[in-house]
Specification:
By secondary structure, this protein is an alpha/beta fold. It is 54% helix and 10% strand. The termini are far apart. The C terminus is likely disordered.
């Protein structure tokens, strides 16, 4: 049984189930959901709790199976948590999880909570995951979309009795906040809590309204930039965000070579998929054969039809030049500084992805004709 995170309150009104499986790559959301389950369980008499963290190929699953079938003298009900950071329980773990899932049916004395990271499609097709899903409640935690982050922040502020100003000023404040905590919900949560301590809402309703200056002075630059998010921003044609992320990666000491690899790999992938399309392959097959999944799959589907072969070839040549620059070589008509060259290369790709119907010719030197 699948359950959306937002449905938890309504779900709990109908009573706890015996088995929950939480999976996703947003630790804050997973932790909050698990905390709510634990609180509800304690109110219903689940006073004992054991935690098992699966680490290594030789983990002893017999202890997990034993804890799920026994209670201490001082508890009527218990919570058994199984944390699998790798998402791979192994052969013994697969058998154990299937046994636990089947045993959860009709067992009102044990609440089993399985916590997993983000799972790929192969993992979710495994027999162990199928058993957890069939006999219990499965909750998937997707990342908060960048465009939805300002609204998420506004909702969190509202929960502690705060809000931003109405209209354009408020939107500017939320956008600033989102920019500073990009990709890091844990940091956003901490900054929101800090605002609650600095500017507590009082009897005067006006005190609950946060100005831009208040947020700017309080919120740290805690963005978590990474090359994979950069890749999505480039393919999404988000030029300003790309420039900001490149500056952030530079300030965090990320290797220029790694950033170049991410940009060049996307260009190579686009070229390979485009060649496959030209050879008569359907888009879904071309993407699958070139291991393009998830968000990138949708982005490729949107931008590739509008980018001609010659443009991709020129982008590939430009990436080759930047490869030399980040390794210390000079290239005619290109900046000497590696980060400046990366800005130009990312901008060239970003421009094509932002407006695939407008087909300017891109040369290896970055000029358009």
């Amino acid at each position: 049984m699948n359950l959306a995170p937002a449905q938890l309150s309504e779900h709990l009104k109908r009573g706890l189930k015996s088995l929950y499986t939480l999976h996703g790559d947003e630790p804050l959301l997973v932790q909050e959901f698990a905390d709510t389950l634990r609180t509800a369980a304690r109110l219903q008499g689940y006073t004992e709790r054991t935690v098992h963290t699966v680490a290594g190929a030789h983990f002893d699953w017999s202890e997990v199976l034993a804890s799920g079938g026994s209670l201490s003298l001082f508890a009527d009900k218990q919570i058994v948590e199984i944390r699998i950071p790798s998402g791979k329980p192994g052969k013994d773990g697969s058998a154990a999880l299937q046994q636990l899932a089947e045993r959860a049916q009709g067992d009102d004395s044990t609440l089993t909570l399985v916590m997993l990271p983000k799972l790929d499609s192969m993992m979710t097709k495994g027999a162990w995951f199928g058993a957890l899903d069939s006999f219990g409640v499965t909750v998937k935690f997707d990342p908060i979309d960048r465009r939805a982050l300002p609204q998420w922040i506004a909702q969190r502020l509202q929960l502690q009795g705060q809000r931003v100003a109405a209209g354009e000023e408020g939107q500017r404040t939320l956008q600033f906040f989102a920019d500073r905590v990009e990709g890091n919900l844990l940091a956003a949560h901490q900054e929101i809590q800090k605002l609650g301590l600095l500017y507590p809402s009082g009897a005067d309703d006006a005190s609950a309204v946060l100005s831009f200056d208040q947020v700017e002075n309080a919120v740290l630059n805690v963005a978590r930039y990474d090359v994979f998010k950069l890749s999505e921003a480039v393919l999404g044609g988000q030029a300003l965000r790309v420039a900001r992320m490149l500056d952030g990666l530079k300030s965090e000491g990320v290797s220029e070579v790694l950033v170049h690899w991410a940009l060049a790999e996307d260009i190579r992938s686009m070229k390979r998929v485009k060649d496959a399309l030209q050879a008569g392959r359907p888009m879904p097959m071309a993407l699958r054969e070139n291991r393009v999944w998830g968000i990138k799959e949708k982005l490729f589907e949107r931008v590739l039809p509008g980018i001609p072969d010659t443009t991709l070839a020129n982008l590939l040549h430009a990436a080759h030049k930047v490869d030399g620059i980040v390794k210390g070589l000079k290239q005619p008509d290109w900046p000497l500084d590696g980060w400046q060259a990366l800005h130009r290369l990312a901008g060239m790709v970003c421009e094509q992805c932002a407006a695939p119907s407008r087909l300017p010719r891109v040369t290896a030197g970055g000029a358009r004709g």
